[in-house]
Inverse folding.
């Protein structure tokens, strides 16, 4: 997609001055072509009719002062995605440090051809794992942008365990979440670690066990 095409699409979602939409469209195309977030490199590719220093300052001003509407951005992402339903929604979290400052982001994205396109995210004012309240709040944001009927399944890693499963169940949202091998499950009125439960598993064998008080299908593979 070239700058003019992207600009035309963006104008339907962002109520901004045309010059600003043109700038952002050109910036996004430059990001894709250069596969770099280095401002100096992007300034060279942004507009050949303007001096590199002017482009660089324009990029700086945009990120320093402009308040981007993430609702508008989500609308644009959903418009550009070829899939319109049967979504696989992925929940994930990333945590790193910028100097002494902790950056911890909880995000939800739609999977398309192996890539997660973020549609909702929230900054956590702490280090480490998210909690149930934060994950539910994130999913509520997701449901403000797409309908439950559009979701095929919610997937997440082993961090996302606990009572939010009950919330997903009450919302009739299917989910497939990895689970730790030391999770305690109930079998024949006994509580045992999941790893022991599957130690004699046969190929194609299926069963249902209660995990953290919920009835779920569990599957495992021996590596």
């Amino acid at each position: 997609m070239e700058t003019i095409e992207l600009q035309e699409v963006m104008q339907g979602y962002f109520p901004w001055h045309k010059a600003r939409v043109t700038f952002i469209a050109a910036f996004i195309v430059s990001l894709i072509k250069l596969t770099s977030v280095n401002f100096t490199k992007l300034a060279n590719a942004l507009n050949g009719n303007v001096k590199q220093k002017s482009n660089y300052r324009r990029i700086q001003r945009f990120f320093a002062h402009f308040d981007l509407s993430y609702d508008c951005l989500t609308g644009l992402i959903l418009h550009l995605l070829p899939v319109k339903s049967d979504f696989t929604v992925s929940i994930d979290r990333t945590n790193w440090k910028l100097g002494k400052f902790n950056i911890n982001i909880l995000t939800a994205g739609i999977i398309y051809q192996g890539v997660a396109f973020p549609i909702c995210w929230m900054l956590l004012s702490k280090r480490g794992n998210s909690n149930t309240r934060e994950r539910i709040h994130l999913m509520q944001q997701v449901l403000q942008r797409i309908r439950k009927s559009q979701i095929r399944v919610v997937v997440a890693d082993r961090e996302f365990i606990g009572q939010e499963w009950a919330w997903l169940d009450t919302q009739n949202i299917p989910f497939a979440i990895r689970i730790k091998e030391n999770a305690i499950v109930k079998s024949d009125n006994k509580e045992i670690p999941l790893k022991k439960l599957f130690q004699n598993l046969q190929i194609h064998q299926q069963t249902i066990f209660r995990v953290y008080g919920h009835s779920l299908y569990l599957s495992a593979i021996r590596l």
